[in-house]
Design goal:
Elements: H1 21-24, H2 29-37, E1 42-44, H3 46-52, E2 71-73, E3 82-85, E4 97-98, E5 101-107, H4 113-121, E6 125-128, H5 136-140
Parallel strand pairs: 1-3, 3-5, 5-6
Antiparallel strand pairs: 2-6, 4-5
Amino acid sequence: MKPYIICHMMASIDGRIDCDMTERIGGNEYYEALEQLACDSDLSGRITAAMHIALPEPFHTDNPKPANQSSFYKATEAKGYSIVLDSKGKLKWPGNNIDGKPMLVIASEQVAQTYLDTLCRQNISWITTGKEKVDLTQAVI
């Protein structure tokens, strides 16, 4: 059975997705609904992850040679993962799990190989797919 994705997100009337909006709604409705979905994995984009999960300083490398191929590395076998989309590999991580779930970073094939090597050393799983940006359809197959 192929995986499926539930989009549980919040947008303002003008269509913007604002990460700080959850703090302004006055209650826990957003998180209560998310908990009721009981999803095995959760997925965050780069901006949300930068605001709430990643270290404040960005990843930097003196060797930006891209991976240039679709590939993957499974550091941990788990029922579910905390997944972060980071097409160019800009975020640094304080550890290898988020809220008790092991991390999985999905990046494009343009991500620096040194970024992927760093994820391996941190015991963080990763997938590279998509020439310029993440190909989410390929990532979930």
